[in-house]
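Researcher: For the record, we're logging two predictions in this thread. I'll number them. Prediction 1 follows.
Model: Prediction 1, sequence and structure:
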Amino acid sequence: MKKIIILMITSIFLIGCNSSGGSNLVTYDNDKLAKEIEEKGFKPKLPTKFPIAIINHEISSPPTNDHFIVDFTGEKGEYFELIIWDKLVTWNDNSNQEEININGKEGSYMSDEVLMSTLHWRDGDYDYILQYYHTFSDTKIAKADLIGIAESFQ
């Protein structure tokens, strides 16, 4: 009987350790977005999953033409911003950054939990900055959710 109880407790513990907040992601069809970005001369990886349903995206490019911004909007006003640079981006202040791993690539996570949470990583020729703005919606998006989005890039 003790072995069964120990086995059950161990199983529950392992399941808890292996589940991430990013596991409840929904598929995002990025085909239209990919075509729009290719027309601008970029071929980066793009997200294929989000923790919420995305209903709209908008692309903007500054005149410098070295990066572009994609704004993603969810059903309840959730707002994600993806900035993709075709050059190396560095932060001036590293004091609030937490080191993370995204598909074997080093990255960083920062959050003030009031305004926004930010992921930054480099993959191939592009630097990616993914931000979730807490102020636009009551929907809670955890660090694991942001990492799940980043890990879905294809």
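Researcher: Logged. Prediction 2.
Model: Prediction 2, sequence and structure:
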Amino acid sequence: METTQCQPMAAELKLSRAQRWRFLAALYAGELQWLYRALARRPALKPTSSELSPEQEQYLAQNHQEVLQQLEQQRQQLVRNCWPIRKVAFPVLAIFSLVCMLLFAHGAGTVVIVILLLWCWFHLPKHMLDEGILPGYARLNHQFLTYLLPAIGSKYGSFHYQAGQSIALSRFQTRLYFGTRHLNLRIRQTEQANYFHGNYRGCDWELEQVKLYGPHKQKGTTVHFEGHMLILQLPQNFQGITTLNLACPLASAAQVHLEQSRFSDRFRVESTDQVAARAWLTPAVMERLSSISPNSLSPVHAHLEGSSLILLIPGLRFASPLALDTPIASCLAGQPCIQELEQLFALMDTLLGQFSSLPARPEEIK
């Protein structure tokens, strides 16, 4: 390992002083960014607010205060455990790296100093994180997914998180084709995480975070979709196969022309049964599907066959890792957790709205 690192470093010593400065500045910034992400674990998107609404605070205080307090105590303990890294390791490594940069920039540095710099930045903080911080952080997120999220979602019905479980590839690989009917791109590879399941108004549902890969001429594989996959069992069988923004490879499939032009502009609807497609795509369903990620370049994809409905939903972030340096309640507001759960169950409620024989919907659903 040392030999492979020495060769490029020796080449860098022949560069000019300005080039050496740019090289080390980029290295220094890259390692700071890596360590910051490892410690802070901030969401990819900035929170829209730092506080929960009064109704949300009251709901958590009345129903899940004990779970919330336990998770908050664990988070605060992890923050205290980070003290040696933030108050000791960071300043020492920053001073050491600055000295190395000054020596190296003036031509007095050696390959050994640069290798020591790399070793310190990569191995010392990584070892401290792996041994003392990240295991506790993983347990905190696991308990958040196992206890707090299902507790919040339980007001809508049955809601469970199951670690290590995933939706079998065989259940959707032959149903989800991207592209067109003549160029159907079948899924070749998936990444799956955070499996949830439950029952809403008597209908079973499954939800999982997925990343779907398909074939690509130059790259071999490419990402066709990244988001969440929802499988909902409807109480009624629909004839034929209906797809939204997916390819229907059957020769009998034809494009469905709908009255709502705004919906047709975003969704390419194909079906082997025109009557069944229009029966499922009621005005309320089309309006709800159009409202999901309206500004996203990746709209919702869907496949309906019989009573099994698969929805690919972009943009959900309610199961994102917690920010270590932010209180749990603020994390729920910033993800946003409760709002997205409400939107998810509102979507399922709209999809089941045309079936009058189902139990009444919860009062929380708007």
